[in-house]
Amino acid sequence: MSSTPLAAFLSARFGMEDPILSFKPIGSGHINTTMLLKSTQQVLVLQKLNTVVFPKPQQLVDNARLIEKHLSNKQQLGEFNLVILHHVPTVKQEYLVQAEEGTWRALELIDDSYSEDVVNTSAQAYTAANAFGQFAAALADFDASKLHAVIPDFHNLAMRFASFKQLVSHNPQQRLANCQAEVDFCLTQLSLVDELSALTGEIPVRACHNDTKINNMLFCSHSSAAKAVIDLDTCMPGYWLNDFGDMVRTFCCAEQEDSTALDKVRVREDIFAAIVKGYVEPLKHILTAAEKQSFWLGAKVMPFMIGLRFLTDYLDGDNYFTTKYDTHNLDRARNQFALYRDIVSKKQVLQALLNNA
Ligand code: ADP
Ligand code: GN1
Ligand code: MG
User: Fold this and answer.
1) Is residue 297 located within the same domain as residue 342?
2) Would residue 116 count as lying in a domain?
3) Comparing C-alpha atoms, which of 284, 301, 289 is closest to residue 192?
4) Which of 231, 235, 306, 320, when mutated, tests ligand 1's pocket best, judged by the most ligand atoms within 8 Å of its CB?
5) pLDDT recorded at residue 4
């Protein structure tokens, strides 16, 4: 099915009867295929779900709909002011469509908005972190146990290490020789697992976003204010330290996540300070002291863990993340390890910024 018959097929399912004008890819997410479908009367965001990553798409939709409902109730009470991401039902009131190419869902377009892959200013970092903080605050009274574990052990570093070690020992693509130095480096960082397990029981389990990268929030095209938090596919029980750490990972560096200019892969301290300020503000009456202290570990762990995941996927033959060339995942891994090293080397100054918040 070429894109035009596919667009016609999907638009019919979602009740778009007027002529289609265009069906084009948008965004730069690594997981789903995101398309903008425009007809003469309507616009829809259509996503082909990556069923390698999300083998049970219905669970993903069920989670998202529960969150939508909770946020809508908060909005009615005047307690949540960002635009809420809504799924669009088919004419048969279903939320998933099976096409020849895969499983699709539709989202309302959040209009007059844009996403960024790199943060430009500390004001932008503050705005984005504050939006993720508002999102976290709005979910603070949501019963996280109602959510399906769509990707079990998503931020479980011990499990990530176990998969990594298995790939290293099997070396299915014969790529180990290309990345032996990175593999050896990872194995020297195993103590992070113990640092994380020491927190069990010390900090609360929350309903987390779990993917707070900068392009998972939308800015308003007119005012540059925060418009919406999107990509709710990994909302699951977890720790806020991971959401904090993923912001540090994706906001603090002036380079793209796959940049090979490793000498420029550095933490911008002003951006780090802006994340702390923006995120903590909406959470200040909820966040526990131990939780706030754990954010330093989050800032270290997330670049390392995502680097480990990129390296694992490289060894595996790029089955998980969308890649554009053979060593794309390896370049991403090297980038994340450079960022991790820089964060660790700036421990004193970054921890002081956290403690002063
Ligand atoms: P992935 O899971 O692949 O990361 P996302 O849900 O994050 O997919 O979508 C990818 C990109 O598409 C986003 O970064 C954003 O630019 C754009 N996008 C997704 N949903 C919407 C929406 N409802 N309105 C406007 N833009 C969107
Ligand atoms: C993926 O879907 P996207 O591009 O927002 C991934 C995250 C990684 C990120 C790395 C479901 O996020 O966990 O941190 O890439 N999402 C999933 O950029 O695995
Ligand atoms: Mg995304």
Assistant:
1) yes
2) no
3) 301
4) 231
5) 82
Distance CA 94, CA 85 (A): 17
The per-residue pLDDT of the chain, averaged, comes to 96
* Distance (Å, whole) CA 283 – CA 225: 19
pLDDT digits (tens, 9 = 90+) for 211-256: 999 999 999 999 999 999 999 999 999 999 999 999 999 999 999 9
Task: Report residue 1's pLDDT band, with 50, 70 and 90 as the boundaries.
Answer: very low
Q: Tell me, yes or no, whether 347 and 208 share the same domain.
A: yes
Ligand 1 neighbours (beta carbon < 6 A) = 26-27, 29-32, 34, 45, 85, 107-110, 113, 115, 215-216, 218, 230-231, 233
Is position 114 within any domain?
Answer: no
Q: Using a 6 Å CB cutoff, which residues line ligand 2? A: 29-31, 53, 211, 213, 216, 231, 234, 257, 306
* Local confidence band at 100 (pLDDT 50, 70, 90 cut-offs): confident
40 C-alpha to center of ligand 3: Å? 27
Atom of ligand 2 nearest to the CA of 233: 11
189 to 158, 178, 303, 315: CA distances (angstroms) = 11, 20, 12, 19
**Within-domain flag for 104:** yes
CATH number for the domain spanning 92: value is 3.30.200.20
Q: Please give the average per-residue pLDDT across 318-328, as a whole number.
A: 97
